[in-house]
Amino acid sequence: MSRSLDIHPLTKTAFAPFGDVIELDPATMRYINGGNTERFHALAVAEAAGEGARVIVNLFRGQPRSFPYEIGMMERHPLGSQSFSPLADRPFLVVVSEDEGGKPGRPQVFLASGGQGVNYRRNVWHHPLIALDEPSTFVVVDRDGPGNNLEEHFFDTPFIIRDPAL
Question: Contact at 8 Å (CB) between 80 and 120?
Answer without folding.
Answer: no
